[in-house]
Write a structure and sequence with these properties.
Blueprint lengths: L4 H15 L18 E5 L2 E6 L8 E8 L12 E5 L31 E6 L6 E6 L7 E8 L6 E6 L6 E7 L5 E9 L5 E9 L2 E2 L8 E3 L3 E6 L11 E9 L3 E8 L3 E5 L9 E6 L3 E9 L6 E9 L2 E3 L6 E4 L4 E7 L7 E7 L8 E8 L6 E6 L7 E7 L4 E7 L4 E7 L5 E3 L1 E7 L3 E5 L5 E4 L2 E10 L3 E10 L2 E8 L6 E5 L6 H5 L1
Antiparallel strand pairs: 1-37, 2-6, 3-5, 3-7, 4-6, 7-8, 9-15, 10-14, 10-16, 11-12, 11-13, 11-15, 16-17, 18-24, 19-23, 19-25, 20-21, 20-22, 20-24, 25-26, 27-34, 28-32, 28-35, 29-31, 29-34, 30-33, 35-36
Length: about 500
């Protein structure tokens, strides 16, 4: 989510390093033509960071790693998830945040087949993952935790994320019923310095505690949000920026009454946003949005339903004051049908915003909650791991033009044959599709979505399991996996000169 010119330059440099040959194939300075059209090449190295899963002694966490088979990769390479190794006794959380372990949490064997691992209890550390060679393009890791009782009980899930320098989390809270942490994980050999800013309904919440937080090398810091402000806030936007280094960031939101889940970062601020895959049986949907610039935003609010775009009665538009978090209850907006929330400008110049949904299923004491942050479209390809024969729902939304996508179910982690289906999603609609599953499935499997034709497609996956009558669930969005990078073809092959 880098947004500055400097960050973009750094990102381009990093991509050149990842491909391993981009700089070598640069055209000669004296050439009349600078370069031919760029070609897509598989990335050769990926990093993923998984936050510490839980502090509950009743927690059971599973990790699932998967890399889709990608053409053009080398035969070699490996991937593994290692526990964060450094300890930080003076962390803001007041606890040690990492511990040494003798073996990786997950070691994938081959692309195309999921690999699994697990961790029980409260001492599961944050994980730092690296994939190289054929394991790198499209690498994804799912962290899924079941908590039997207590604050945040239910099913919690998150896809482990790449390190970055800026994150937006609309939907956090310091209300009395909530215990929210922002988890920061540093994968590098030097310390990272991070600022955590909070924005409530009236603007910035004053705090010096969140300034200049040091995250040691190969370590994690869980920061309790209510230690950063003395004023309880029902709806917060958390802004994480990195002064030096880079981190992975995620918010763990735990509620006394409605369970808990992970709140992933919203996509980069944009004038239009999509939050795909609201469960059809959602009993409550709350929209939280924030405009980070110096202009107010006015947005149309629409639901992409199975039959088309509709406007929720009483919530046709949303006004967001600059620098202030805005929240609105949409109730049971889906009315028993699958849906995706679509935000677009009412007119004039689009104003960049970030947003997320808090979704509740069940009623009374049998409630559970999850989050859907605004996400980027699938674009070329996206993958989600840790699917099961029962309890998996794949939602596909085409808010603009009609689109066609191909969905592939991988082999199972313990056996099974891959399967593929193609779907046409009508423009302006969301469909809970009957996703394919591997024949002879044993264990868990991955779903890979690839664009075939038409407009952009937004996707999410819901995992559900009922424990003692409570409808536990978690939702992960499927943005593009960035498994390839554009590399310009040179007019001159410099490898000949390098050999001379």
């Amino acid at each position: 989510m880098n947004r500055t010119t400097l960050s973009l330059i750094a990102g381009a440099t990093a991509l050149a390093a990842v491909t391993g040959f981009a700089s070598l194939n640069a055209p000669a300075a004296s050439s009349d033509s600078t370069a031919r059209a760029a070609v897509q090449q598989p990335v050769e190295r990926s990093r993923l960071l998984c936050p510490q899963p839980s502090t509950s002694d009743l927690a059971e966490t599973a990790y699932t790693s998967f890399t889709p088979v990608t053409r053009g990769t080398s035969e070699g390479g490996k991937a593994e998830l290692q526990p964060a190794t450094e300890e930080s006794p003076d962390s803001p959380s007041g606890k040690k945040t990492g511990k040494k372990a003798s073996k990786p949490a997950v070691v994938p064997k081959a692309p195309g087949t999921p690999a699994t691992g697990d961790s029980s209890g409260a001492e599961g550390p944050a994980l730092v993952g690296t994939a190289e060679g054929r394991f790198a393009p499209g690498w994804t890791v799912q962290e899924t935790t079941e908590v039997a009782a207590g604050t945040g009980r239910g099913l919690l899930g998150t896809d482990c994320t790449a390190p970055d320098t800026e994150f937006w989390f609309p939907g956090a809270s310091t209300a009395d019923s909530r215990t929210d942490y922002v988890h920061l994980t540093n994968p590098d050999d030097s310390a990272a310095v991070v600022d955590v800013e909070l924005y409530g309904k009236d603007g910035t919440l004053k705090s010096t505690v969140g300034d200049g937080i040091t995250v040691p090398p190969h370590a994690a810091e869980p920061i309790l949000l209510n230690t950063l402000t003395s004023a309880p806030q029902t709806d917060l936007t958390v802004h994480v920026t990195v002064r030096s280094g880079r981190v992975g960031a995620a918010v763990q939101a735990l509620d006394d009454r409605t369970g808990g889940d992970w709140l992933g970062a919203s996509t980069d601020p944009a004038g239009s946003l999509v939050m795909p895959g609201i469960p059809k049986d959602a009993t409550s949907v709350r929209l939280v949005a924030f405009a980070p610039g110096d202009q107010d935003a006015d947005l149309k609010v629409r639901l992409a339903s199975p039959s088309g775009l509709i406007t929720p009665a009483g919530n046709e538009t949303l006004h967001i004051k600059s620098g202030m978090t805005t929240a609105v209850d949409l109730g049971d907006v889906t009315r028993g049908e699958a849906g995706s929330l679509v935000l677009t400008p009412t007119g004039g110049t689009p104003v960049p915003v970030v947003a997320a949904l808090r979704v509740v299923r069940g009623k009374g004491d049998q409630q559970e909650s999850a989050f859907i942050p605004a996400t980027a479209p699938v674009a070329a390809r996206a993958t989600v791991a840790d699917n099961s024969a029962k309890g998996t729902t794949l939602a596909l939304s085409a808010p603009g033009r009609t689109a066609q996508v191909k969905v592939t179910a991988s082999a199972g982690s313990q056996g099974g044959t891959p399967a593929t289906k193609t779907y046409t999603i009508k423009g302006g609609t969301t469909q809970d599709v009957d996703a394919p599953a591997p024949s002879g499935l044993r264990g868990t499997y991955a779903l890979t979505v690839e664009s075939v034709s038409g407009g952009p497609v937004y996707a999410s996956r819901t995992l559900a399991s009922t424990q003692e009558g409570v409808p536990g669930f978690t939702i992960q969005t499927l943005p593009d996996d960035h498994g390839t990078v554009a590399v310009p073809e040179a007019d001159q092959d410099l490898s000949v000169l390098l050999k001379s």
